[in-house]
C-alpha cells in the first residue's frame, strides 16, 4: 500500500525530540539518514552518533491528514519547524528491489563474490557465495575489496591463514577457496563468529578447516598469512599482538584505514615488516608487508 512520508532536516540535538513527537502523532516508523554523505568513523564506545546534517524520515498511513501533521508537530515540540517536505510514496516489492541492486562482483583475477539468488558468471572461477547486505562485511566496501584483491594475488597453497576481526568470515573463506588448507578466525562479537560459521557452511567449508574464536579463547598460533580489516585505531593499538600472530617471513595485510591514517598505521608496523607501497581505493587504503 502507499505511504505518506515526512522528511525533516534536523540537527543531532533535535533528533530525540522530533522522533518522539512524530511517533506520538502516529508515525509507523522513524529513520535517520545522512543529508550530505558525511561519514562517521570510529564512534565513541556506547554512543550512536548522528551526522551534523541529518534527515529524519517518518512514514504515516496513506489516509493520514497531511495538512494537520505539521501544525500538530509544531504544537508538540513548541518550536519553529525545521525545513521539511511531505510526499506520497508508492509501495513496492522492497526485497526484490534490494536484490536487483546486487550483482556478482569480481576481485582480482580468480575470485567472485556471488549472491545466493544469482548464477555464477564464471562457474569454473573461485566463487564465494555470500549475500550482500548481511552484517560484518560482504565485499561491497572498499576495504574488503582491497583485502580480497590482495588475497587473490597471493600463493596460498600450504599456507595457514588468520583472519583478525573476521566478521562475516569473507576473507578467511576466500583464502580457503583460493587454496589455503586451513584458516582461523577471531572476532570480539559472538554474532560475527556465528555468521562466519554459517557462511563457511554455505560454501562447503569443513568446520575443522575454519575454527573461529573469541579473542580470549584464541590459541597461541602463528600464521603464514594474517589479514586484519578492522579500524586504524585498533590496528595501531594492537600492533604488537597482530605482529606476534605472523610467522617470520609471513605476510600481513591491514585495512579499514582512511588515507589520512595510513602513515600512523605504517609507522606502527615498520619496525617488524618490510612494507609494500600503500594500495588505495575510494579514500581507503591497504597496508601489506612481509615480517622480517
From TrEMBL:
Organism: Pseudomonas marincola
Molecular function via GO: protein-lysine N-methyltransferase activity
InterPro entries: Ribosomal_L11_MeTrfase_PrmA, Ribosomal_PrmA_MeTrfase, SAM-dependent_MTases_sf
UniProt-listed Pfam families: PrmA
Biological function: Methylates ribosomal protein L11.
Location in or out of the cell: Cytoplasm
GO BP terms: methylation
Record field: catalytic activity: L-lysyl-[protein] + 3 S-adenosyl-L-methionine = N(6),N(6),N(6)-trimethyl-L-lysyl-[protein] + 3 S-adenosyl-L-homocysteine + 3 H(+)
Lineage: Bacteria, Pseudomonadati, Pseudomonadota, Gammaproteobacteria, Pseudomonadales
This protein's name: Ribosomal protein L11 methyltransferase
UniProt keyword Methyltransferase present: yes
Annotated binding of S-adenosyl-L-methionine, by residue: 144, 165, 187, 229
Highest taxon of the lineage: Bacteria
Transferase recorded as keyword: yes
Amino acid at each position: 500500500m502507499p505511504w505518506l512520508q515526512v522528511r525533516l532536516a534536523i540537527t543531532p540535538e533535535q533528533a530525540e525530540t522530533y522522533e518522539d513527537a512524530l511517533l506520538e502523532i502516529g508515525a509507523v516508523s522513524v529513520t535517520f539518514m545522512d543529508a550530505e554523505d558525511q561519514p562517521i568513523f570510529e564512534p565513541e564506545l556506547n554512543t550512536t552518533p548522528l551526522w551534523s546534517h541529518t534527515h529524519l524520515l517518518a512514514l504515516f498511513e496513506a489516509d493520514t491528514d497531511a495538512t494537520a501533521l505539521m501544525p500538530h508537530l509544531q504544537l508538540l515540540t513548541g518550536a519553529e519547524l525545521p525545513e521539511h517536505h511531505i510526499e506520497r510514496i508508492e509501495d513496492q516489492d522492497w526485497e526484490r528491489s534490494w536484490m536487483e541492486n546486487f550483482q556478482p562482483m569480481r576481485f582480482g583475477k580468480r575470485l567472485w563474490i556471488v549472491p545466493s539468488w544469482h548464477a555464477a558468471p564464471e562457474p569454473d572461477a573461485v566463487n564465494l557465495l555470500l549475500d550482500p547486505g548481511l552484517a560484518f562485511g560482504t565485499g561491497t566496501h572498499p576495504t574488503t575489496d582491497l583485502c580480497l584483491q590482495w588475497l587473490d594475488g597471493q600463493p596460498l597453497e600450504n599456507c595457514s591463514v588468520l583472519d583478525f576481526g573476521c566478521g562475516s568470515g569473507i576473507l578467511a573463506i576466500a583464502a580457503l577457496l583460493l587454496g589455503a588448507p586451513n584458516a582461523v578466525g577471531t572476532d570480539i562479537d559472538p554474532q560475527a563468529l556465528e555468521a562466519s560459521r554459517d557462511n563457511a557452511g554455505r560454501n562447503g567449508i569443513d568446520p575443522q578447516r575454519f575454527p573461529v574464536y573469541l579473542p580470549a579463547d584464541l590459541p597461541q598460533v602463528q600464521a603464514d598469512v594474517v589479514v586484519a580489516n578492522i579500524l586504524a585505531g585498533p590496528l595501531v593499538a594492537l600492533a604488537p599482538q597482530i605482529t606476534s600472530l605472523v610467522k617470520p617471513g609471513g605476510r600481513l595485510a591491514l585495512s579499514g584505514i582512511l588515507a589520512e591514517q595510513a602513515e600512523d598505521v605504517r609507522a606502527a608496523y615498520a619496525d617488524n615488516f618490510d612494507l609494500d607501497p600503500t594500495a588505495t581505493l575510494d579514500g581507503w587504503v591497504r597496508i601489506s608487508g612481509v615480517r622480517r
